[in-house]
Amino acid sequence: MTRTDPRDLAGTGLSEAWVDELVERTLAEDLTGGPPLPGAPDLAVSFDVTSAATVPAAQPGTADLVARADGVVAGLPVAARVFTRLAPGAVLTAGAADGDRVHRGDVLLTVRGPVRALLAAERSALNIASRASGIATLTRAWVDAVDGTGAVVLDTRKTTPGLRPLEKYAVRCGGGSNKRMGLYDVAMVKDNHVAAAGSVAAAVAAVRERAPKVPVQVEIDLPEQALEAVGAGADFLLLDNMTPAQLREVVALVGGRVELEATGGLTLAVAREVAATGVDYLSVGGLTHSAPILDLALDLRAG
């Protein structure tokens, strides 16, 4: 499946304003001083010294964004906007869509425009797409590992500062789901909150009074804490660093009454065993904090 317009953000959940701001910040990191590039006279820092020295100003060209490894692609519409920020008249053709499984050598996006602008945009576009695609690729490995168990793979808040919307979108491209976007959409009662409030029941009650419409999750690390948390009014439980045997015990105690999420110390090697205990979710910080990039490159063609 490909988009008619490779820059189209429909269905990504990413806002136009946020993507524009990310593109601007990313380009500003790479371009430092000098005359403006074609199409970007208002970008305060817009000079690629190597391309300006080696490429004639009016030279057109075509470049392919190519996969150098097998994986799952994500972030292509954002990468496309990097190119068109510096070359507004560039013609883009999609070769793949976010969420697609791709193979080494596949052309993901083709861009035709001024060569100077394409080369100036190259690294910024690749950094975005490679990072997002790496997260999507790792997520898909986890999703495949638990396929058929009914368990859902979730991300966490362990994201790169400033890139959370992109990285959580990449998780969705890989077939995973987002847990919470921040500290505002789910109340997570952890041991420090319990210590401050005096008890699990007091902590949950305080959240209910202050934010009655916000779902409440309680973190537990022993099966015997499950009944207390459910009795206190938790909507779902975070089962931290429990063994498969402990997870099965919690499922037997409160499964079906609240949703159960396993987390902590999870690896691909044990993912299916954990999912088979009957928990509803596996939350994996490594999806975003430890995903290697997917190797992508930009190949310039003559003409």
From TrEMBL:
Presence of the UniProt keyword ATP-binding in the record: no
Quinolinate phosphoribosyl transferase N-terminal domain segment(s): 48-133
SUPFAM superfamilies named in the record: Nicotinate/Quinolinate PRTase C-terminal domain-like, Nicotinate/Quinolinate PRTase N-terminal domain-like
Keywords carried by this UniProt record: Glycosyltransferase, Pyridine nucleotide biosynthesis, Transferase
Pathway annotation from the record: Cofactor biosynthesis; NAD(+) biosynthesis; nicotinate D-ribonucleotide from quinolinate: step 1/1
Family: Belongs to the NadC/ModD family.
Name by which UniProt lists this protein: Nicotinate-nucleotide pyrophosphorylase [carboxylating]
